[in-house]
Amino acid sequence: RNPPSGTSFFSKLQLDLQPGKVEGTFSTPRFQRIPGGETFMSENVRKVLLIDDEDAVLFTFTILFDEPDIVIHTARTFNEALTLLQKNVYDVVITDLWLNGTARFEGLDVITTVAEYQQNCKIIVLTAYGDDIIKSYILSRGASFYLEKPVAPQTLKKLIVASDCSPFIPD
Q: Phi-psi category of 100—alpha, beta or left, where left has phi over 0 and alpha has psi -120 to 50?
């Protein structure tokens, strides 16, 4: 359903740019008060959690997805992501497989946690260290999509705006 005329949605991009630190939150209100007391929720707004330990990746995708139909929250670590997953409902979680340079793939923990807290959420796993064995394992654990870096922003955008985990084959 479309908002009545005269109702506007707005977006706000907030970035904290300090040396060695990039924090970004892109927010678009999902609920809008309309004259007459109704509350309208945009069905087309996608709430996305982007998890990556590289500031440049978080910054770049926050800027590239600066659109009124996408809300982006960012996290650098599994613990930050866990906090956000417990407080918010997401349509899509995009996670790097290998966070914080640890010897283990924390992206697997993200998949398990999303499956526990948000069963209807699409999970997109990105990695620069992939192969067919890892791909099969990631998909068997519950990821919706597995993509090897570099990933074209248009590919991620198509996955985000798709209405569900229905068939979409990335380029």
A: left
Phi-psi region of 2 (alpha: psi -120 to 50; beta: other; left: phi over 0): beta
The pTM (predicted TM-score) of the whole model is 0.71
SS (H, E, C) the chain: CCCCCCCCCCCEEEEEEECCEEEEEEECCCEEECCCCCEEECCCCEEEEEECCCHHHHHHHHHHCCCCCEEEEEECCHHHHHHHHHHCCCCEEEEECCCCCCCCCHHHHHHHHHHHHCCCCEEEEEECCCCHHHHHHHHHCCCCEEEECCCCHHHHHHHHHCCCCCCCCCC
C-beta atoms surrounding 57 within 10 Å: 20
Chain segment 5-41, per-residue pLDDT in tens: 333 333 333 444 444 444 444 343 333 333 443 334 4
Look at the chain and count its residues. Answer: 171
Q: Per-residue pLDDT tens for 142-158?
A: 999 999 988 888 898 88
